[in-house]
Amino acid sequence: MLSLPFPPHRDAAGPFNRQPKGIRLNLPMATPFLPAFPAPATDPPVHPPLRDSHGRVIHDLRVSITDRCNYKCVYCRTGEMGAQYPELVIDEYFRLIKLFAGLGITKVRLTGGEPLLRRGLLELVGELSRLRTAEGKPLDLALTTNGHLLESLAQPLKDAGLNRITVSMDAVDAATFERITRVPGSFARVLAGIRAARAAGLAPLKINCVLLRGFNDDQIEGFARFAREENVVVRFIEFMPLEEGRLWTPEIVVTLREILDRVGRALPLTEVPPREASETARRYRFLDGVGEIGIIAPVSQAFCGACSRVRLTSDGKIRTCLFSQVEHDLYGRLRAGAGDDELRAYIIRTVYGKEARHHIGEPGFLKPSRSMVHIGG
Ligand code: SAM
User: Fold this and answer.
1) What is the pTM of this model?
2) Are 168 and 146 in contact (CB under 8 A)?
3) Is 375 in the pocket of ligand 1 (CB under 6 A)?
4) 262 with 221: CB under 8 angstroms?
């Protein structure tokens, strides 16, 4: 269990409610690469940028606007559970995001569940595109979607002011894809969505693929070709223990090293230097200059030392790490009538208590009580 560098909040893992809520998984995993942290500061800074007690600047906010989803991806959902958490009204998301932006958040990614299912999405994107950061600049505004409804929404989203989009796609072969999503006809829908997003100028267009051994690891080489043919950046993601059921084992994770070896054997690659320290993906360009892939390796090569993210769940809770054992009820304070100053102070204090790192694969690792689809990936 982590010890917080300052007195815990009332709804944090304080001495009276230290009972972990997660599920214990005692599974070994490769030792993650974890850089040393600077000594904790004594108090959270009161001005932008937002910082945590480990010296990291937090400039990236992921906001789930629903935990409903129209896919039942086999590695994510059991297929028996629907939405689990309430949604805020769109104006409330906007009010909370505006507070974060005033405190130093520069990137906002809307996610879910499936964000394209959410009524009011275009209005929210429009409002957010007019919002300014603490430095008076427009937000970097992105969205993650499964792409099923994207064909007709890509242009309206672009027109509303969305900058970038990431489409999740776990196979390039239609039959494998539909076995994963459990939705007939889904592959054609997503492909049409990807092409519509590209035509609308939502660039660079990224495709996220979570790889699981024995499920879709036969798709690696096909994805490398897909990246080149469709002019998209494919990013392979290591599978994390964040599913609704119990599928995760160290053996099911296809690691960065393995992905690199396999793609490199089919099409030689060269690594591209990171644009910023907090970049989650390691980037590689094909040696002939056509196309790029990325690999996000939170399990085998954890990047917590450079993490710049916090999350807001669909029901308005702040999560300072995907693997947090505690949530911080920002919306509860808003509902109770807290003013902006009070909410800002709460955000600053909560972000300051962000966990140093996750503990995947370590003895005593605890799976969080919410799975990825209910947190907002
Ligand atoms: N519905 C949207 C979508 O499909 O992109 C947004 C939500 S979805 C939970 C966000 C991303 O999380 C998807 O790319 C999905 O593949 C990924 N994801 C889900 N479970 C995961 C896990 N256990 N490990 C790593 N990524 C996961």
Assistant:
1) 0.89
2) yes
3) no
4) yes
Mutate which of 71, 78, 144, 194 for ligand 1? The one with the most ligand atoms within 8 Å of its CB, which is 144
What are the angstrom distances between the C-alpha of 97 and each of 104, 113, 191, 199? Answer: 11, 18, 31, 29
| Residue among 316, 314, 327 at smallest CA distance from 354 | 327
| CA 38 / ligand 1 centre spacing (Å) | 31
Q: Is the CB of 116 under 6 A from ligand 1?
A: no
Ligand 1 center from residue 43 Cα (angstroms): 35
* Statement: residue 113 has pLDDT above 70: yes
Of 45-49, 136-140, 253-257, give the lowest mean pLDDT range. Answer: 45-49
Across 193-315, the runs of DSSP E, i.e. the strands, are: 206-211, 233-238, 269-272, 281-286, 292-296, 309-312
Residue scoring higher pLDDT (20 or 45): 45
Q: Is the CB of 323 under 6 A from ligand 1?
A: no
For residues 176 and 216, the answer to whether their CB atoms sit within 8 Å is yes
pLDDT of residue 42: 57
Question: Which H or E run contains 194?
Answer: helix 186-200
Q: Is 263 in the pocket of ligand 1 (CB under 6 A)?
A: no
- CA-closest residue to ligand 1 atom 15: 168
In single-letter form, the type of residue at position 366 comes to L
- Cα separation, 302 vs 160, in Å, equals 35
- 28-32, 69-73, 332-336, 359-363: the lowest-pLDDT one: 28-32
Which amino acid belongs to residue 224? A
Nearest-CA residue for atom 5 of ligand 1? 145
Residue (of 4, 123, 125) closest to 63 by Cα position: 125
CATH number for region 23-375:
3.20.20.70
Q: What is the pLDDT of residue 276?
A: 87
| Average pLDDT score, the chain | 89
